[in-house]
Structures are given as C-alpha cells and as structure tokens.
Amino acid sequence: SREDFQRIPELAINPLGDRIINAFFPEGEDQVNFRGFMRTLAHFRPIEDNEKSKDQNGPEPLNSRSNKLHFAFRLYDLDKDDKISRDELLQVLRMMVGVNISDEQLGSIADRTIQEADQDGDSAISFAEFVKVLEKVDVEQKMSIRFLH
Amino acid sequence: LDYQHVQVPFEITLWIMLASLAKIGFHLYNKLPSVVPESCLLIFVGLIMGGIIYGLNDRSPPVMDSDIFFLYLLPPIVLDAGYFMPSRPFFENIGTILLYAVVGTIWNVFGIGFSLYGICQVKAFRLQDVSLLHNLLFGSLIAAVDPVAVLAVFEEIHVNEKLHILVFGESLLNDAVTVVLYKLFRSFCEMPTIKSVDVFAGVGKFFVVGLGGVLVGLSFGFTAAFTTRFTKDIRVIEPLFVFLYSYLSYLTAEMFHLSGIVAIISCAMGMKRYVEANISLKSHTTVKYFMKMWSSVSDTLIFIFLGVSTIGENHEWNWPYICFTVIFCLIWRALGVLVLTFFVNRFHVNTITSKDQFIIAYGGLRGAICFSLVFLLPDFHRKKLFIAATTVVILFTVFIQGMTIRPLVDLLAVKRKRESAPTVGEQIHIRFLDHLLAGIEDISGHWGQYYWKDKLEYFNSKYLQKILLREYDQPKSSIVLLYEKLERKHAMELAQAGQLGHSPAQPPFLSSDRTVITDQKLEDTLNPAVLDNIQEILARNLYRIRRTGPAYNRHTLPGDSEPAEQAKEILILRHKSL
C-alpha cells in the first residue's frame, strides 16, 4: 500500500516521491502486488542487444527506449491527456526548483521550455515532442539499473 | 651594458616571448594546426632552438631543470584542468577511471619492466648490466600517460565526452601510482637487500599517497571557499586566493611526498562550487582568463624545452633497447586496455565500444613528466641510455600518435562531441530523470550512483553550504541559472541589434499571462517602467551568473561558441507567437 512506500525515508525527501509512488499503482487501486511492482521496475532494465532480434511483430518489451520515455512522460502528465500542459510543467518545476523563485519567473521558464520543444504550436508538449527534446540524451543508459547482478 | 643584473628575468621573458610568437606563427597558417597538432610544432621549434644554441656554443644547451618543471610549469596546467573539469561525467565514470589509472598503470609498469629485462638478457644486445630493478624503475617512469600531452592532442579532436574524460581522468590520476612506484624502485636501488616487508610497505604507501593527496587538496579547497566568504569588501584580490590556495595544496602535498597532482585537482574541484558563488562576476572572469593564460604559457614552454633538451650529448644510442621500449609501450598499453575494459563492461550498463577502446589505447601519450623523471634519476652509468629511450618514446608518441589520431578518429567514425547549446528544457528533463532514478533506486534498495549523488547533495545543502557560502539564502538551482543566463544573453543581443527600442516582444520575465501579451500594441517607444524593470532584473542576474556550460576546452573559453543564430531564431519564434 502507499503507506509502505512512504515509509522509505529517502523517498520522502525526493521531490518526485509522490508521483513515483503513484506510478506503481494501476488505475484506482490502493494495493500493488508483486507482479505490478515488477512490471513497473521492469521499465528500468538495461537494454540488451539480443532482444532486437526477437520478433519485431510482437509487443515491444517494457524496457525499450520509447517505453522508458513513456514512463517518464506519464509522471509529468497527471491528467493523462497525452500532453504536458503548461500547468503540469509548472507543478513539476515548482517541486524541483524550490521555494525562492517567484511564480512569474517560474512561469517564464515554463514558457521557454514549451517554446523550445513545441513544434505543432499547441502550447503543450506532446509525447513526440518530448522524445525529440531528449533525443540527444542517452536515455537507455540513464534510465537503466542493474538489478540483481 | 649591465646584462648580469637582469640576466635571469630577461632570459625567462625571452623564452616566454618566443613561445607565444611561435604560437601566433602557427595560427597564421590556417591549414597547419589541423594537420599537425600544436605540441608537435612546438617541439619542432624547440629542436631548432636547441640546434642553434648547440651550434653557437658548441656544448649542450640548458636542459630543462626538473625542479622548474615540477614546481613552476606543471601546476598551472593541472589546476586549469581540475578547475574546468566537467564534474558530472567525471564522477559518473570515476570507477572506470580509477581502474584504468591504478590497475592499468601497474600492469604497464610491470609488463614493460619485465619484458625489457627479458630483452636485456639477450647477449647480442650488450645490455646485460642493466638489472631487473633498473628496468622496473625505467618502466615506472615511462608507463604513465601524461596529462599535458593528452590534453594538447585530445582537445583538438573533439571526441565524445565520455571517451575524453576517461583518457584525461586516467592521465591525471595515475600520478599517484607513478609517484609511489618511482620512489619505491628508486629506494630499492639503493638498498642492498629487499625484503617482502618492503614490498607491502610500498603497497600501503600507495593508499597513503593517493588518499593523502585528496585530503590535503580538499582541506585547502574548503579553506579557500571559507576565505572567500569574507572577501566582500576587497573584491580586487579575490582571484588571488584561488591561485594561492591551489598552489599551496600542491606544494604541501609534494612536501609530504604525497601526490601533488591529485591534491591540486581535488582542491580545484572542491572549492569551485563555493568560490564561484562567493566571488563577484569580474573576479570570476579574471580567474578564468588568468588560469587559461598561465596554463597555455606553461604548456608551450614545456614543449619547447622538450625540443631544446633533445639536442645534445646526453644520449647513448642503443637501438635495440630503444626500439623494443617503443614496441612494448604500445603492446602493453593495448593489452591493458583490452583486459580492463572487458572487466568494466561486465559491471556497467554503458559499455565502452571497441572503437573507443582503440582510441584509449592509442591515446596513451607520454610527455614531459617522463622526461623530467628520467633526469631525476641518480647517476649511474646507463642513465644516458634511459634518457635516449625516453626521448624517443616521447617524440614517437607525440609526433606519430598525435598526428595520426585525428585521421584515425575520422576514419573509425568515433562518436564525436555533440555540439549543441544547452536548452532549458533538456536541463529540466535531465534533472527530472535524476530525481526519478534516485527514487527508483531507493525503492529497489539499490545503491547506485544516483543514490550517492542524492546523499551528497543532501549533505551539501544541509551542512556545507551554510558554512562556506556567504549569502546562504537558498542558492538557485541550475535550471534557473541556465535560464537566466540564456535570457540575459538574448536580451543583450536584442539590445545590440537595436531592437529593444521598438520591440513588440514583451520582456519574457515579466509576462505571466498570454492574453495580456496579445492586448499590448506595438509601440515605438518602450514603456519606461518596463525598461527600468528590465535593467534592474538584468543587474541582479548579472551579479549572480554562473557558468553551466559544456565541457572544457583549453583554447577557446567555454561559452564563447554559443551561436547567436539560435537566439535570433527564438526571437523570431517569439515574434510569431505574438
């Protein structure tokens, strides 16, 4: 349950703690079982080369680059409309940046971010635009943890 | 004519002048630096100078004094490297770097030493009087990769950041190992018998040297940060503290026979964050420029002296020994890199490709440190042979490997550094991923790098910043700083293009609502209240600006190469969005 997660001390001081915890729980439920736990953590497995040769027609494995990015995208996008709106971005920024920055400045930062990424002019970041911003970042290696080695 | 009176400073200044003029000369021919790296050209100039002096005086030209090198010429370069080291890639790869530096160097030393001893056993070469210990001593000084040479060559070829930091970090940190092994073998040479206790003492000494260097450096670094907390009223001498404390840390470490290079690097990296927050913008610029200037001068002088010292009667040419030295250096380095990378790739997610491995092995350049160490050897009858071999190895690596590494990098299509200006969005997302990963690591109980980074940040914000920063009022996060920096740059470009006068673009830091913008009309004169506000915000931001730029480059200061085109594009986008 959620309280169990919240007992982890480091998670309490992590700015994104609540959202990460929420990511483990599927829609509307309050308990996560082991299978669900593993499913979420499976996003962070490192990418192995031999998986590419497996059948291309089947569903993509959970730890592919786009699925990893999708996981991160879902943490931004709380209302699940497949876009990161300015407000959602503002919320995340506020959590990460701290309390000393004025709302105006934060708003300008958010504006600038959206402007840099936005290509279809809808003043929100869609998943494709999100992927494009991070195309130069080595996401496969950043978002991988060697569990149980 | 009172030459005796001014002789020493006069000659020093003449040498420095010669070095700088040579540098200007190279850049006059645009094509030359792209084919031949600067270090080669400088050695060449040194050779010519040495030849001239030899011809005039008919005796050997002044050999570079090891004291001058170690005490005056080397510290500025290492300080420059440490201060501008991109700390994020460095700490992400620290395990690999340490492995290469420590294990790799030991491997090289023993490999080269033993194989050369094997060569000496061959009767035909007339080398039997070179004992195993001498060979090991020689191995210890020639095996170490040299930071000066690596820096000079690698920064012109712009390989990807990870590769750069691996080779460079290794060349800096292997100083600790080199110091220990060199001193160890040298003292063994003088002792009649060697007991195994001595060997273990040597191993223990290595830890002392390395960790002691780090401790000395960090303590000086934090003292420097603490001192700059109080320099608010005497801004003029602020840059001096940076240099004084770093140099002191180097000298103190050398005094205690610890590793000076490691000390000065830890000093620079430790103090950078806090000092930059405390000192004014002008002092910061001064520090940056002075450091670059000094390290550039030192670097040039080292190579020229290397060339000068080559000419002369210091050498004994025993060709088999020399050739085999060169061959073994290459072979053992390649083997070392292969074996170590195999181990590294087993444990790490991000693998080092074979192309990268080749460049790491090929980029193991030897330089002036080996040269000075060989001159410091006690005088025994084979010393000149070692000097000759060292000279040939250095010339070989710098000239041949230095010249061919660029075409090889192009040929093998090694991943290059991505040349892109930082965007705020990217920074935000990277930070976001950092937090995310730290959280996931906490949940899974895995002590990975994000866990330690998080812990360090926590420790930093709770304790260190309170003591070391002057205005502890929640310093701004790097996202905000980057944003401010980009906005300021943009605003300055607007002002320069004369558009601030009739620009319809609302100053971005004032807009809070899109609808308000569309209501404002284009006006010829900007609202004076708005203008005042801009200047005030600019003044505040100017005071607090910090560099959050890309990796380190010796010749061009970071931040210079940001394209103005991007700013213009953003301006155009903004116009469109109105």
UniProtKB/TrEMBL annotation, chain A:
Pfam families: EF-hand_7. GO terms for biological process: protein transport. Keywords: Calcium, Cell membrane, Cytoplasm, Lipoprotein, Membrane, Metal-binding, Myristate, Nucleus, Phosphoprotein, Protein transport, Repeat, Transport. Its main location: membrane. One of its GO terms (cellular component) is cytoplasm. It comes from the Eukaryota. GO terms for molecular function: calcium ion binding. The keyword Nuclease does not apply. It is found in: Cell membrane; Cytoplasm; Nucleus. SUPFAM superfamilies: EF-hand. Residues 64-99, 105-140 form the EF-hand domain. Coiled coil: none annotated. Belongs to the calcineurin regulatory subunit family. CHP subfamily. This is CHP1 protein. It comes from Centropus unirufus.
Automatic annotation (TrEMBL), chain B:
The keyword Membrane applies. InterPro entries: Cation/H_exchanger_CPA1, Cation/H_exchanger_TM, NaH_exchanger, NHE-1-like, NHE_CaM-bd. Gene3D superfamilies: 6.10.140.1330, 6.10.250.1040, 6.10.250.2020. The chain crosses the membrane at residues 12-29, 35-56, 68-85, 97-120, 132-153, 165-185, 206-227, 247-268, 289-307, 319-347, 359-380, 386-409. Residues 17-409 form the Cation/H+ exchanger transmembrane domain. GO terms for molecular function: potassium:proton antiporter activity; sodium:proton antiporter activity. It is a multi-pass membrane protein. GO terms for cellular component: basolateral plasma membrane. Keywords: Antiport, Cell membrane, Glycoprotein, Ion transport, Membrane, Phosphoprotein, Sodium, Sodium transport, Transmembrane, Transmembrane helix, Transport. Pfam families: Na_H_Exchanger, NEXCaM_BD. Residues 524-578 form the Sodium/hydrogen exchanger regulatory region domain. It is found in: Basolateral cell membrane. GO terms for biological process: regulation of intracellular pH; sodium ion import across plasma membrane. Belongs to the monovalent cation:proton antiporter 1 (CPA1) transporter (TC 2.A.36) family. This is Sodium/hydrogen exchanger. It comes from Copsychus sechellarum.
